[in-house]
Design brief:
Helices cover 39% and strands 21% of the residues. It is α/β, with parallel strands linked by helices. Strands 1-10-7-4-2-3 form a six-stranded parallel β-sheet, with helices on both faces. The longest helix has 20 residues, at 3-22. 41% of the residues are buried.
Length: 209
């Protein structure tokens, strides 16, 4: 990555972190994937029960692999025949691992979900939420973050899941009511009621969707 982009990301991350802290959330900046994993593992004590909401960013930096191989009780819903049971276990987990579809420069998190298991766990349940967020997901404001979530993240995820939605076919949001839509629940996290619960690791890389 260009040194100029890296410098810009460092300065922008400082602003986002100040915004997160003003909203009772914790922010961190990692210069690369390796540092992001180190920060995340520092937030997740060994022996913790950990689960996640399909965060591609956590896979991409190698964090999920480290958790599965380490001294953690990792709830892998892909190993469950009863997916609902796996999702319900998330609400009592020590740590919920996620990303964010978008984040505003002043620290507001924006997430869209189909089944709502991810957004509901971010909102309440797990003792701690650790988010891995690439700097490509930082937007000017909440409106921009919402547009990114709907126009960028949703179409790509619909294609990834093999869904028959208008956005999967056109690549852009059609504000549909398709039975396959994944834009069912919108979560805007503008403040955390519980200090030290939500931790956002901003990574100097393009991660996820």
């Amino acid at each position: 990555m260009s040194e100029f982009i890296t410098k810009r990301n460092e300065l922008l991350a400082e602003k986002v972190i100040r915004g997160l802290e003003s909203r009772n959330m914790s922010g961190y900046y990692a210069k690369d994937a390796e540092e992001a994993v180190k920060i995340a593992l520092g937030l997740i004590p060994e022996g913790s029960t950990v689960t996640m909401g399909g965060a591609m960013s956590a896979h991409e930096i190698g964090l999920v692999k480290r958790l599965k191989e380490g001294n953690y009780s990792f709830i892998d819903r892909d190993q469950f025949t009863d997916k609902r049971k796996a999702m319900l276990l998330a609400y009592d987990a020590d740590v919920f691992l996620s990303s964010s579809n978008a984040i505003s420069e002043d620290g507001v998190l924006v997430n869209i979900d189909g089944n709502a298991n991810r957004v509901s766990a971010i909102a309440q349940g797990p003792k701690k939420v650790v988010m891995i967020v690439g700097m490509n997901k930082v937007c000017d404001d909440v409106d921009g973050a919402m547009k990114r979530a709907r126009a960028v993240a949703a179409p790509i995820n619909a294609q990834r899941f093999g869904l028959s939605t208008p956005c999967a076919k056109t690549g852009s949001c059609m504000n549909c009511k398709s039975p396959d839509t994944i834009c069912c629940q919108f979560l805007i996290t503008r403040y955390s009621k519980h200090k030290d619960r939500i931790h956002v690791i901003l990574v100097n890389e393009n991660l996820g969707f």
